Amino acid sequence: MQFIYAAILGYLCGSVPFGLLLTRAAGLGDIRAIGSGNIGATNVLRTGNRWIAAATLILDAGKAALPILIARYYWGEEAARIAAIGAFLGHCFPVWLGFKGGKGVSVMIGSLLALSWPVGLIFCAVWLIIAFSQKMSSLAALTAAATAPIFAFALADEWLAGTVALLAVVLFYQHRENIVRLMNRTEPKIGSEKKPQ
């Protein structure tokens, strides 16, 4: 039962749509009608409000870290990994929004920092290096996610690596349209997209 509790806790925390709530509270409208239509921090940035985007990133990371830390405290490390999966699925497929959520980058950051902070920091470093060098948020996220299981295996164990690999697969699925654009060389670069009027 403890694993079921961890999964439910993770999903409920992960499914809180902070991007949608914050943009509405700030009078920026429905984030689902802007840009890519997802509720994550990258799309919130397209509103032109960097503070709301930063708050979304922090809260989305936090809503993943919180259930992981709670699950670890009460039920152990395996429950913590299950909570991470639950939070990730809750963010990407929230039942309250018709299972249409974010792409999972912020939640993956929060999950990795809570599960193994060195792996989380490496994920952030890889993201920043690719983002600054290639000016593509999606490519940065995909590269960081693809390499994260390797670092998880090297710095922790095969159980964490397996968990991170599962998160990476879901993240890749959520970025499937970006992958097509990257292959066609039509993916917009950071800062090139027009902000809403």
Can you summarize the main beta sheet? none
Secondary-structure element pattern, one letter each: HHHHHHHHHH
Give the CA-based shape.
globular
**Share of β-strand residues:** under 5%
**Number of folding domains?**
1
Radius of gyration: 16 Å
Separation of the first and last Cα atoms: 50 Å
Number of strands: 0
Total helix count? 10
Low-pLDDT segments: none
Query: What percentage of residues falls in helices of 4 or more residues?
Result: over 70%
Helix/strand-derived category reads mainly alpha
Characterise the protein shown here.
With 197 residues, this protein is mostly helical. It has one domain (2-184). It contains ten helices and no strands. The chain has helices at 2-14, 18-25, 41-45, 50-75, 77-92, 105-115, 117-134, 137-155, 158-174, 176-184. The longest helix has 26 residues, at 50-75. The chain is globular, with a radius of gyration of 16 Å. The N and C termini lie far apart (50 Å).
Summarize the structure.
The protein has 197 residues and is an all-alpha fold. The chain has helices spanning 2-14, 18-25, 41-45, 50-75, 77-92, 105-115, 117-134, 137-155, 158-174, 176-184.
Detail the topology: elements first, then pairings.
Layout: H1 2-14, H2 18-25, H3 41-45, H4 50-75, H5 77-92, H6 105-115, H7 117-134, H8 137-155, H9 158-174, H10 176-184
Helix pairs in contact: 1-4, 1-5, 2-4, 4-5, 4-6, 5-6, 5-9, 6-7, 6-9, 7-8, 8-9
